[in-house]
């Protein structure tokens, strides 16, 4: 049987043909230029679930997540509402690797919290020399940690607003661009292959040779947006609507750009401030991951974001009082 799935969003509607085991469906996908890849999403919370649900409309997707989330997916499917509307039942979900198909994936999408990166990579030891590892994470240092073991690594910058509603359900608040680029043992062609797979399901994805600069720019953005949304209990869109916060955003961005420059990465303050506004508007209903973590009483990624900027500032003899203030306040909120 041949069926179609429609993925809707604020800016696009993507129709893909499913049940590609059917020869006619395979032929249609071939004509449309769709090539199926095997993906493993490791550590699927809100973001990983949105990505998995959309990719599974065309590609083969396995997902590793928390047991209650996985059980709900296996029983009823993965429901995504908001910018994406889909009930995805074509996902091989498990709480650990032993529970899923062991065939090596073409790409492993790492979506765990930054403080769990090394443990995640150790758990994936059987794939170190077989699959491309892609970090879809916040913070600095994830790609380097993965490359300590994995032979093929891509970096990525992903701007998608996602909120975990409950087991088997997430809310997609909005979508902005996704960039992929080579880090270790990979090429720009590898990045384009993964970007093309994301584009096929409606994500605005592209390959970038300068992914290090993109990752740093995202960290500077996160260093401003995440702590402020978390401390003020504001959704992303509310942050840029508040004129009183404009000088605060300018201070943290200026300080963080100075740290980047000392680390060999040249960034433009104005462009990053403009980017903050653009991303906030595109994901206006989103709760930042840091806000979600505080609401749930979980550890945040402040150390991988502002904490990494602080460490690099100290290494270069630079003062960073705004980053230190944000980090200390988040740590106090975590206590």
Automatic annotation (TrEMBL):
<comment type="similarity">
    <text>Belongs to the ketopantoate reductase family.</text>
</comment>
<dbReference type="InterPro" id="IPR013328">
    <property type="entry name" value="6PGD_dom2"/>
</dbReference>
<dbReference type="InterPro" id="IPR008927">
    <property type="entry name" value="6-PGluconate_DH-like_C_sf"/>
</dbReference>
<dbReference type="InterPro" id="IPR003710">
    <property type="entry name" value="ApbA"/>
</dbReference>
<keyword id="KW-0560">Oxidoreductase</keyword>
<dbReference type="InterPro" id="IPR036291">
    <property type="entry name" value="NAD(P)-bd_dom_sf"/>
</dbReference>
<dbReference type="GO" id="GO:0008677">
    <property type="term" value="F:2-dehydropantoate 2-reductase activity"/>
</dbReference>
<feature type="domain" description="Ketopantoate reductase C-terminal">
    <location>
        <begin position="210"/>
        <end position="333"/>
    </location>
</feature>
<keyword id="KW-0521">NADP</keyword>
<dbReference type="Pfam" id="PF08546">
    <property type="entry name" value="ApbA_C"/>
</dbReference>
<feature type="domain" description="Ketopantoate reductase N-terminal">
    <location>
        <begin position="40"/>
        <end position="184"/>
    </location>
</feature>
<protein>
    <recommendedName>
        <fullName>2-dehydropantoate 2-reductase</fullName>
        <ecNumber>1.1.1.169</ecNumber>
    </recommendedName>
</protein>
<dbReference type="GO" id="GO:0005737">
    <property type="term" value="C:cytoplasm"/>
</dbReference>
<dbReference type="GO" id="GO:0015940">
    <property type="term" value="P:pantothenate biosynthetic process"/>
</dbReference>
<dbReference type="InterPro" id="IPR050838">
    <property type="entry name" value="Ketopantoate_reductase"/>
</dbReference>
<dbReference type="GO" id="GO:0050661">
    <property type="term" value="F:NADP binding"/>
</dbReference>
<dbReference type="Pfam" id="PF02558">
    <property type="entry name" value="ApbA"/>
</dbReference>
<dbReference type="InterPro" id="IPR013752">
    <property type="entry name" value="KPA_reductase"/>
</dbReference>
<dbReference type="InterPro" id="IPR013332">
    <property type="entry name" value="KPR_N"/>
</dbReference>
